[in-house]
Every structure is written in structure tokens, then in C-alpha cells.
Design brief:
This protein is α/β, with parallel strands linked by helices. The protein folds into 2 domains: 10-63, no CATH class; 68-340, Alpha-Beta Barrel (TIM Barrel). The chain contains 12 helices and 12 strands. It has helices at 10-19, 24-34, 50-65, 119-123, 131-144, 163-176, 192-199, 219-225, 234-248, 266-276, 301-313, 334-340; strands at 68-74, 81-86, 92-98, 102-104, 108-110, 125-128, 150-153, 184-188, 209-213, 252-258, 281-287, 317-320. The strands form 2 sheets. A 10-stranded mixed sheet has the order 1-2-3-4-7-8-9-10-11-12, with helices on both faces. Strands 5-6 form a two-stranded antiparallel sheet. Helix 5 (131-144) packs across helix 6. The chain is globular. Bound molecules: iron/sulfur cluster (SF4). Iron/sulfur cluster is lined by residues 111, 113-115, 118, 120-121, 156-158, 189, 332.
Length: 348
Amino acid sequence: MDAIPALPQIQDLTRRLECCRAKAPHLRRVYRAWLGRAAWPDEGTLSLPETVRRELPALHGFLRSLAVPVLRTSARDGSSVKLLMRLRDGQTVETVVLPKDAVCVSTQAGCAVGCRFCMTGRFGLMRQLGSAEIAAQVAAAREVNPGIRKVDFMGMGEPSHNLRAVLEAVQFLGTYGDFGHKSLMLSSIGDRRLFDALLALPEGAVRPALALSLHSATDEGRRALIAHPGNLQVAEMVSLAERYSRAVRYPIQYEWVLIRGINDGEEEIGRLIELLRGRFAMVNFIPVNEVEGSPFRRPAKPECLAILERVRAAGIVAKIRLSAAQDVEGGCGQLRARADALPASPSA
Ligand code: SF4
């Protein structure tokens, strides 16, 4: 198994198993076990060819080494668990086990988008994740909560910047992990390549739900908050998103990190309403996570509620969502930042 390249992709695992004469049902048996849907097969599992069975111990060790939890913090109320995962080359990414049987996975180590309110954005991009490393985070999360049935691709990284691996992970999880298509949620700043790929997915393929990080209803406003907001203007992004939501028949989620004095004003919210009125969409307002060294502050609760009411009154489905486990360095990238400040070899 160590012959697999440093950036582990699911297709390399499949090739390796096929070299051991695994056919589709055997792949299914092994992959479902990896994703916590069946017991791990052993030498006595006669439904697998002997050549596959011989490979199982090495394969198991390899899969478990793809994303190893080395640091763990829990919310005070126990609702969320944040894991710092060490990859095989020592890079680390964050995975958050969320309430309501969901997990948030990372798609890159670091991120090149540079949202100004995000700790991960400060690190820049370290490297891509392989599709197997993305799936391995789900497998590890199911060891914390075996009931996980929803995956948000919303952790460190921008999925459209690692599109091939992310889409391979989506197909894999939807095929072997007992996840409904709608329960696999890609979160993106919006990128033409992403829409091209999603709109080209055939009927039988796993077609994920989509969340778009909007944060402002104008191109100028987005550029002020996002260093590299992608290659689409807001109007075109919303119109492509509308096409996708009608094709898959589930709404687009628009994410709006609420920042006091930046995007919580009457005019800005008015533009948001005009942009999304009548669309097959919903808005998640996320009061900004206040991190040390950042100038951004969240609006007070009554202001957040007033914005919510106004948007709802315009006929748009909207919610206020707190970012997960905020009391335990829940903002994206904070756990990794803390780990960087720790001595080497933190223990789980
Ligand atoms: S919020 Fe997401 S897209 Fe923006 S910098 Fe952070 S990880 Fe990247």
C-alpha cells in the first residue's frame, strides 16, 4: 500500500484492489467497512477473494493512517467535537463533528481564497488533499459519531480549487457511505469550473447540494471581503446557481457572514433581498467569529434578528447560524493555529 502516491486518491485504492482481483461487490464490501457501514472484513470473510483478504491488514493500516486525529476539542455543551487531523506527510487539517449527525470536512490544507475574516485564509494554501484523505475524515468522524449522515465540504479549503478530488469524494461517499445526495453539501465562493462540472453531472450521478459564500450582494463588496472571489460576477453566479438548483430540485444555500458596519446595513441587506427574491434559495446568516487580531465584530443579537425578520418578510427563507463550536476555537483554522503554537507531537 505504501506504493500509492503521496496524494492519496480513491481511484488509486480502487486500482490497487482491482490488481488483487477485487470486483465491484468486493470493492463495495471493503469501502462500506472503511466508512463505518459494516464490520472490517478479516481473513475469514469468504465473500472476498483470497488475494484481497491477504491485502486487508496492510490496507487497513494505510486507510487509518490517511487522517489521524491528533488534537481534539469539544464544545462545552458537548454538541460539537473539533478534530485536528494529521495527514501522512505531517500536514494538518480540521474536521468538525457537528450537531444533528453532520461532519464538516476540509478539502485543502490551507486555502488560497483569502477571506479576510478567516484564520485559514491567513495561512495561504499548503497543498491539495487527495480524495481518499477527504473520505478518511468522514471515516474518522464516524468513529466519534457512528450516526453521521451529512457531510459539509465547508472546512479548510475551497472545493472548486481541488475539484477533481472533491467530486471523486462526493461520488464515493454518495455511493458507499449511505449519504443522500442532498446530504453532501459543497460550499464554495462560486467558480465557473465548479458550475461547469456540476451542471454536466448526469442524472444517475451523485449530485451534491451547494452552498455559496456570498457575504455581499455586489462584486465590489465581495472583493473587499474576499481576496480572490473567483471568476464570476455576483449576478452570473446567482443565475448559474439557480440553474443547478432547478436541475437537482433542492435550494442553494447562500452564506452571509454578518460583520458589524460592513455588510449589516439597510442598503446592503436591501440589495441581498433584490438579488435573491423569487430564487430557489435560502440564506444562512453567520455572525462573524471574533478572533484575536481581527478587526471584525459581529452585530448585536437584536440587530441580527431584525435583519433576519426583514429578509423573511421579503419571502426569502433565512436562518441565523452560529459557526460550530465557537467556544472551542471553532472558527475555521483556529485549532490548527493553536496546534502550530504547541510543542511537536501533540497527543490525541
Ligand atoms: S472562509 Fe473558506 S474559502 Fe474563505 S479563506 Fe477560509 S477556508 Fe478559504
